[in-house]
Design goal:
CATH topology of chain B: ABC transporter involved in vitamin B12 uptake, BtuC
CATH topology of the largest domain in chain A: Rossmann fold
Radius of gyration of chain B: 18 Å
CATH class of chain B: Mainly Alpha
Number of domains of chain A: 2
Radius of gyration of chain A: 18 Å
Oligomer: heterotrimer
Number of strands of chain A: 10
Strand content of chain A: 25-35%
Helix content of chain B: over 70%
Distance between the termini of chain A: 49 Å
Strand order of the largest sheet of chain A: 6-7-8-3-9-10
Largest sheet of chain A: 6 strands, mixed
Largest interface: B-C, 45 and 43 residues
Chains: A alpha/beta (245), B mainly alpha (287), C alpha/beta (610)
Largest sheet of chain B: 2 strands, antiparallel
Number of helices of chain A: 9
Shape of chain B: globular
Chain lengths: 245, 287, 610
């Protein structure tokens, strides 16, 4: 089966800071892959490169076997959508305008946007309530939901989520993650980048860890037996592990 | 006094027309096009050609001017702006100034230094609302307000307009939603060029066509956006009127030598006191 | 071919060439050139003074202050009016220069508050206003018709003829270039390059940015005023149409063609833009098109202009890479760690909110001399905010920050820097056009004030300050291990070296507290090790170092104390080992479940060992 998203030998960074080197990752259709790693490991850089807003010095990114080399806008048309970290919606535009903009690539299809907006309101009723409000006036959690809804407007087959839980209160995080889990049922392939292990492992099918620009762990969540490896990756290798206390 | 008001509104409307051009380009590409006023000057000369040399009706001159403006706008974006790709405000100022200078230079080379009359309207004065004015002046005011209204409406209501507003707020996010940012910038230059040039034949009926028409116009239209706010069409109208009224009242009550100086003072005040302008949605890249 | 060694090229005065050329030009009339050529030369000289002033503000300091031709007009009218009134040349000259300085200062004041676009437009507007201002006082200025009757220049009563006037103009031009060249190569010129690169960097080094900007505008205005004064006498008549849009555009084009950030480039640009047009018959018609094209090409392609090209060509063909003698000396001498007099940094109860977002909620941090204090925490925890509050870029809503017992909270960044707090940034801020040594030296600018006049005249005090700057810079570079790069352009170095350079710069001037913002970001292992060893040695020399880092291995190896920030609160403080085993820390990085697992395991181990 072709993977929905396949990243091979990716080298990227910013300026001449090589953040990601030789990264390989495959994300199957209809599954959630969690990409974990501490700060500075290169998670956001990787997603930016996959989405096309960061140049790639080496490597290929394929969507259902089709290599993606065009601009970000072309990749959106091909079915890839990125929800950036920091709830980056268009703050000065209303909720409804944000949703319409999400459907920009399909704007010429009759009735597409109207339908998409209805679906978004069904999924996230609070957005319907606030639809004439400027996006900047929404709370953090609402903005996050708007950002996801906006990305879904383009009817993507692969969804990249960058730290959707950042800065949100725990109960809102629950809500957001429940929604993300639902997306799997619709056949979406989701690449979920997170720092916190908890929530992501709850809903993910696969987990990969990014450390110093390379993947060090890449397995099914069910097969993950202990979190030591993860902890080492985040907080450094223990020198005296066997110190019997 | 009403005469002065009408004169001020009419002069201000000219600034508004250029300011509309500034806004279209600024919203879609975050570039301030110093050359915009020269497009009006180019249109003015086409109006001169049409009226005095080729005997074309007004609508033909307007269309040709729009076409020429569109072409120059396209050339400007492709040759002078695109390659810059965010090398900083310095370079943009220099290249847009360069383009504006080339346009003025072309006008000088082709038509000489003497101002030329554009004879589409006669300058018969009549009474209107208690003041003396003429048809051209009123038309300019009308066109400016209408154009600002229409462009503003299109920007707010259509997908393309929405896309340009969104992109000016956050370029990366725009790209990620599938908006082709490069196209937006290109068409913005083309449309702004066409629109502003198209008003040239009309405006020149009031101001005469002259190769240095664009110099002070560029700066005073900048004051209009500084007052009204970058990116706001409503602001372009209000700002333009404010500048025009100030100039005319200054000329009448202080003397013509004080005309531009009073606008200069307004600029300083506006920049320091109202950094966002009256209706500005985004701050000009100040730092 | 025997090349000049770097040493010869640097020590041997390169400026001898232009000076010699200038002197030759000065005596040309006596060698028999005709009046027409003299006139052209005068025009080139005057224009080159204008372009030089523009290069100072635009090229060196990066300020879009384009009002040179307006100031030229001020100088010309000032001198002209007083000459008509009967004053002598030296006096009218001085008056003109002072008037120019005043106008430059006044019109520059908005530039402090305004960004580049606005400053550019304001100064451009000024240029266009000249005719109107002239018309305000037609009795004095002659109005639009021009000011007639400017007598021949008289020097101490004796009138100067054409040749004497020529010699005077060339002489003044040479003097102006000498003074400004000295200024540009002094620590002041360095400071302008820092300003051009980033006002934030300038503030973090202790510069008062408004003061620096104002000085720049005045320095840029002086040559324009001087040129204006001389111009007034050229024809005995001042035509207000000479100063306008066309001249302003020509100046900008000349600056770019010659090289906006060069001194001698001003002459090249001025020459091209004065002589070029004149040689082409029927040029008048096409002058604007020509200037416009130059501007577009210049804006697109010309990095450094002709002077830049000449410099590179000269370096490639005539200069080899041997080290200068003082660098060799320093490399040969023992690496001597200076005693760094670090002070205690104590932040208490710091609060900072942005709108509804409370980034820092009552944070305490203590960093002592001779220790490395690390500040870590997950994304969005507030680390950089805390650093920005400590260095003065943000004002805290509550809390105190004391350096060596002296409160600094709420002070402007350059004042905090002056109190001894130096910092690096996540992306290295290394100005273009500076050598490695000059980058380090730029940190000392705010600490030792030396007067501009002394720099222009190369008085002993200025030369001494420069020597000391360089000696200290070389010493520090040697400690860090990159002394052999001292005279290389800094901006092109690899990332790891630039990070080391930033650390070195942070050390210059004996800092009380050093704040390092993610210095290891983007570095590979060997660079990280090098950086770590440098930081450790600085710690040993007595520095107070606070480091924000994500690279936990690095933190573990060099930190004496680790402070963990999470969602604006300090959740743990201790040694690296203590901290990484702290359940709260594990939860903040990895989540609740990971914490629970750790606690379960700790409990089991404790149970098992009983």
């Amino acid at each position: 089966m072709t993977n929905a998203l396949e990243i091979r030998d990716l080298d990227t960074g910013y300026g001449e800071v090589r953040v990601v080197r030789g990264l390989n990752l495959a994300c199957p259709e209809g599954q959630i892959t969690a990409l974990l790693g501490r700060n500075g490991a290169g998670k956001t850089t990787t997603l930016s490169a996959v989405a096309g807003i960061r140049p790639v010095s080496r490597g290929t990114i394929s969507l259902f076997g089709e290599p993606q080399t065009g601009s970000a806008a072309k990749r959106v048309a091909a079915g890839l959508a990125l929800v950036q970290e920091g709830k980056r919606v268009f703050r000065q535009r209303t909720v409804e305008e944000n949703l319409r903009l999400g459907g920009f690539v399909h704007r010429r299809r009759r009735g597409y946007i109207a339908e998409g907006i209805e679906k978004a309101y069904e999924r996230f009723p609070i957005l319907k309530e606030k639809r004439r409000d400027a996006a900047g006036m929404l709370s953090g959690g609402q903005q996050q939901m708007l950002a996801i809804a906006q990305a879904l407007m383009a009817d993507p087959r692969v969804l990249l989520l960058d730290e959707p839980s950042a800065g949100l209160a725990p109960s809102i995080v629950e809500e957001v993650f429940n929604e993300v889990a639902e997306l799997k049922k619709e056949g979406l392939c989701v690449l979920l980048v997170e720092q916190l292990i908890d929530h992501s492992l709850r809903i993910a099918d696969r987990v990969a860890v990014l450390d110093h620009g390379r993947i060090t762990i890449d397995t099914e969540v069910a097969a993950l037996d202990s979190w030591d490896a993860l902890r080492e990756s985040y907080l450094g290798v223990k020198e005296t592990e066997e110190k019997a206390s | 006094m009403m005469t002065t008001v009408l004169a001020g509104l009419s002069l201000g409307a000219v600034y508004t027309l250029v300011a509309i051009g500034y806004n279209i380009v600024f919203i879609s590409s975050r570039v301030f096009n110093f050359a915009q006023a020269q497009f009006l000057m180019a249109g003015a000369f086409i109006g001169f050609l049409g009226s005095a040399k080729l005997g074309l009706p007004l609508w033909a001159a307007v269309l040709i001017a729009a076409f020429v403006g569109a072409v120059i706008g396209a050339l400007e974006e492709v040759l002078a702006i695109r390659r810059l790709a965010g090398r900083g405000a310095h370079n943009e100022l220099v290249t847009t100034l360069g383009v504006g200078t080339i346009i003025a230079g072309a006008a000088l080379a082709l038509f000489g230094a003497d101002p030329q009359k554009v004879t589409y309207f006669d300058s018969a004065a009549f009474d209107f609302l208690g003041g003396r004015t003429n048809l051209v002046d009123l038309l300019i005011i009308l066109v400016a307000v209408l154009l600002a209204g229409i462009v503003g409406l299109i920007t707010r209501k259509t997908m393309i307009g929405l896309a340009s507003l969104a992109t000016s707020e956050d370029r990366d996010a725009g790209m990620l939603r599938g908006i082709n940012v490069k196209h937006l910038a290109f068409w913005a230059f083309v449309i702004a060029g066409a629109l502003v040039a198209a008003t040239g034949p009309l405006v020149a009926s009031k101001t005469l066509a002259s190769y240095h028409l664009g110099d002070l116009l560029a700066v005073k239209a900048f004051v209009a956006v500084a007052v009204g706010g970058f990116g706001s069409y409503r602001g372009a109208v209000i700002g333009g009127f404010v500048v025009g009224l100030l100039e005319m009242f200054g000329a009448r009550y202080l003397g013509t030598e004080w005309q531009s100086i009073s606008v200069f003072v307004l600029l300083l005040v506006a920049l320091i006191v109202l950094p966002k302008g009256l209706f500005g949605r985004s701050q000009e890249r100040l730092v | 071919m025997k090349k000049l060694s770097n040493e010869t090229y640097r020590r041997g005065p390169l400026w001898v060439l232009p000076l010699a050329l200038g002197l030759v030009v000065m005596v040309l009339p006596f060698l028999g050139i005709d009046a027409g050529t003299q006139r052209i030369t005068v025009s080139v000289a005057l224009m080159s003074m204008l372009v030089l002033g523009l290069n100072m503000t635009f090229g060196y300091a990066g300020e879009l202050a384009l009002g040179q031709s307006a100031i030229y007009a001020v100088g010309a009218y000032a001198a002209g009016i007083f000459a008509v009134a009967g004053l002598d040349l030296p006096l009218t000259f001085v008056i003109a220069v002072l008037a120019a300085a005043a106008v430059g200062l006044l019109t520059g004041v908005p530039g402090i508050r305004l960004g580049n676009w606005s400053l550019g437009m304001v100064t451009f507007f000024l240029v266009l206003l000249v005719p109107e201002v002239v018309n305000l006082f037609p009795k004095v200025t002659g109005g639009a018709v021009g000011l007639p009757g400017v007598p021949l220049p008289t020097f101490l009563g004796a009138p100067l003829n054409g040749q004497a006037y020529y010699v005077l103009v060339i002489g003044v031009t040479i003097a102006t270039f000498v003074l400004l060249r000295n200024f540009a190569t002094s620590r002041h010129g360095n400071a302008l390059k820092v300003l051009r690169e980033s006002p934030v960097l300038a503030r973090s080094l202790g510069y008062s940015v408004p003061g620096l900007k104002l000085k720049t505008y005045v320095i840029g205005a002086l040559p324009a005023g001087a040129a204006g004064a001389l111009f007034a006498y050229q024809d005995g008549y001042i035509n207000p149409a000479s100063f306008g849009f066309q001249m302003a555009v020509a100046l900008l084009a000349a600056s770019i063609i010659g090289g906006a950030d060069s001194i001698y480039g001003a002459v090249i640009g001025a020459a091209i833009l004065t002589i070029g047009p004149l040689r082409t018959s029927g040029f008048q018609q096409f002058s604007l098109i020509f200037f416009g094209i130059l501007l577009v090409l210049g804006g697109l392609f010309f990095a450094g202009g002709i002077a830049g090209l000449a410099r590179r060509w000269f370096q490639r063909w005539f200069v080899d890479d041997r080290l200068l003698s003082d660098v060799k000396d320093v490399l040969a001498s023992e690496v001597e760690f200076p005693r760094i007099h670090g002070k205690e940094l104590r932040a208490t109860g710091v609060e900072k909110a942005f709108g509804g977002n409370r980034a820092l909620r009552g944070v305490d941090l203590v960093a002592r001399p001779g220790t490395v204090t690390a500040l870590i925490g997950p994304n969005g925890s507030g680390k950089t905010t805390l650093l920005n509050v400590v260095s003065g870029f943000y004002k805290p809503d509550a809390g105190t920050i004391a350096v060596g017992g002296v409160a600094v909270e709420g002070k402007a960044p350059h004042k905090v820097a002056a109190s001894g707090v130096s910092r690096t940034f996540q992306t290295p801020l290394i100005p273009k056009g500076m050598t490695v040594a000059e980058v380090v030296q730029s940190a000392r600018y705010a600490r030792d004030r030396a007067s501009i006049l002394a720099a222009m005249l190369r008085l002993p005090s200025a030369r001494r300050a420069q020597r000391e700057d360089r000696a200290e810079a070389l010493r520090l570079l040697n400690i860090v291990g990159i002394a052999e790069l001292a005279d290389k352009p800094a901006a092109d170095l690899p990332l790891g070296t630039r990070r080391l350079l930033e650390v070195t710069r942070a050390l210059a001037g004996d800092p009380a507290v050093v704040l390092l913002d993610e210095p290891a970001s983007g570095l590979d292992e060997s660079d990280v090790q090098l950086l770590s060893s440098v930081i450790s040695r600085l710690r040993d020399a007595g520095a107070t170092i606070v480091i924000v880092e994500h690279n936990f291995e690095m933190v573990m190896s060099i930190a004496d104390e680790v402070n963990v920030l999470h969602l604006g609160e300090m959740i743990a403080v201790g040694t690296p080992d203590m901290v990484r085993n702290d359940p709260a820390v594990v939860e903040s990085y990895l989540g609740k479940a990971a914490r629970e697992e750790l606690e379960r395991r700790n409990a089991a181990q404790q149970g098992g060992s009983k």
